[in-house]
Write a structure and sequence with these properties.
Elements: H1 2-7, H2 10-45, H3 50-54, E1 68-69, E2 77-78, H4 86-93
Antiparallel strand pairs: 1-2
Organism: Paracoccus fontiphilus
Protein name: H-NS family nucleoid-associated regulatory protein
Domain DNA-binding protein H-NS-like C-terminal: 58-103
C-alpha cells in the first residue's frame, strides 16, 4: 500500500483523503445513531422515554406568530425575536415607536 501511495499524484492523494474523511464521518454518525437507538429502546423497555431519564426538556416545535408588520407592506412581518429587519430599523430611525408597528 505504501508504494501505491508514493505513485499517486497530489490530487489523487487529496481525493483519497476526502473519501476517507467522509467514510470516517459516516461511520461515526452511524454508530452514534445506533447507540442512541439502543439507549432509547432500553428506556422504553423500562417504561420511560429518554428525555425523562436525562432531564432534557422536549423540543418545542412550531413557528412563532409575527408580532410586527411593515405599515407600507403588511406582508413584511417580524416576530420580535432575533435581529431587527431593515424596515423596522428604518421606521425606528424615522421617529416611530416599536408599538406603532404592532399587528
Amino acid at each position: 500500500m505504501n508504494q501505491d501511495l508514493d505513485k499517486m499524484t497530489l490530487k489523487e492523494l487529496r481525493d483519497l483523503r476526502a473519501k476517507l474523511d467522509r467514510a470516517i464521518n459516516s461511520y461515526e454518525d452511524r454508530k452514534r445513531r445506533e447507540a442512541l437507538a439502543a439507549i432509547e429502546e432500553a428506556a422504553r423497555e423500562h417504561g420511560f422515554n429518554l428525555s425523562e431519564l436525562t432531564g432534557a426538556k422536549p423540543r418545542r416545535s412550531g413557528t412563532v406568530a409575527p408580532k410586527y408588520a411593515n405599515p407600507q407592506d403588511p406582508t413584511m412581518t417580524w416576530t420580535g425575536r432575533g435581529r431587527k429587519p431593515r424596515w423596522v430599523q428604518e421606521s425606528l430611525e424615522g421617529g416611530k415607536q416599536l408599538d406603532d408597528l404592532l399587528i
